[in-house]
Structures are given as C-alpha cells and as structure tokens.
Amino acid sequence: INAFIAIEDETFYKHSGINWKRTLGAVGNFIFKFDDTEFGGSTITQQLIKNVTQDNDRSALRKVREIIRAMFLEKKLTKTEILEAYLNTIALGNGICGVQVAANYYFNKDVSELDLSECATIAAITQNPSRYNPITGMENNKERRQLVLEKMFELGSITSKELINTYDVKIDLDNTQKQTFETEINDYFI
C-alpha cells in the first residue's frame, strides 16, 4: 500500500479525489510545454475511475467526467475501500490486474508474503506495464523500483536502513505460476 501511495499519489489521504495542484500543473504543461515529459495529475481515485469505466479518451471532457466521478466516489467510499478497489484493478503487465495476481505471477507468493523490494517491484510496474515489466524490462523496473523506495523513504514509510538494505537487491522472480494464468481454453464447455 505504501509503495503505491508513494509513487502514484502521495497526497491520497489528504485530498477529496482530486489533487488540484498536480491537475493544474498537468494542464499548464499541456498548454505551455514547460516540461518535456508529460505528467499526469490523476489521483489513485481518478485512476480507479479510469480502470473501472475504461473511459480512455484523451480529451478535456473525459478529464472533467473523471474529476466529477472521483469527487462523487470519495463521498460514497472510504479511502480504504478506494485503495482496495484500485489495488485489485490496476494493470500490472502480462494481462495481470491486481496486486494479488501479480504477487502470484511474478513471485509465486501471496501478496501478504512479499518483502519490501518485491512490493516496490510491483508498484514500479504501474506507470508503464510494458516498459517496467520485471520479466522483460528488469533494468527499467530496477530504476523505477529504486524511485519507489526513495519516495517511500522521503514520505517516512521506510527507514534509511530499509532503503539501504533494499535499494540494490537483486530481485528473484519465480513465475512458475505463469502457466496457471496463461491456460488457453479451446472448448466452450470447458
């Protein structure tokens, strides 16, 4: 949870669905191009809305719909419920949705058994699941995982000792469960 909050929405517990500062910054960057990279202003709540509705238009109207829906959702659900739904719907590469499935797929573990570096590995995937895929893009994932750990330290979620002990850890993938998730069904009755 702390890894996802650190890298995706560090103000998650403080806002009511929208981080206005980031949203206005993203709009300003879109119009005036003061930064070469595109950065989003979406909160975890907004990302959940996008995941659930599959509303992927790249338009101002979609963003307005998303903002309104996020404010409404924040009034109906608790932060814990929003976070749980987000963590169960987030795309994590290889057709995987949700942290439990990702833990099984990449590490052959229950999500509750993951260590800090494994949690950061999964959280690192979210921004770009094909680029940060730990199987096909381990170096990219490592750089992003280190960023996740740095943000966690900056926010006080981990100690300096935990940061040092996990920063350069080699991740051992155990995707022996891979076949479980990639079974083809050929007959309708199966």
Task: Produce the secondary structure layout.
Layout: H1 2-8, H2 20-32, H3 44-53, H4 60-76, H5 79-89, H6 99-107, H7 116-125, H8 138-154, H9 160-167, H10 178-181
The biggest beta sheet is recorded as:
none
Round the mean pLDDT to the nearest integer and report it.
Answer: 87
Tally of strands: 0
Determine Rg (CA atoms, Å). Answer: 18 Å
Question: Spans of 5+ residues with little confidence (pLDDT < 50)?
Answer: none
Distance between the termini: 36 Å
- Percent strand equals under 5%
Number of helices: 10
Give me the secondary-structure category.
Answer: mainly alpha
| SSE arrangement, N to C | HHHHHHHHHH
The helix fraction, in percent, is 55-70%
Outline type: globular
Question: What do you see in this structure?
Answer:
The chain has 190 residues and is mainly alpha-helical. 56% of the residues lie in helices and 0% in strands. The chain is built from ten helices and no strands. The protein has helices at residues 2-8, 20-32, 44-53, 60-76, 79-89, 99-107, 116-125, 138-154, 160-167, 178-181. α7 packs across α8 and α8 (138-154) runs antiparallel to α9 (160-167). The longest helix has 17 residues, at 60-76. The N and C termini lie far apart (36 Å). The mean pLDDT is 87.
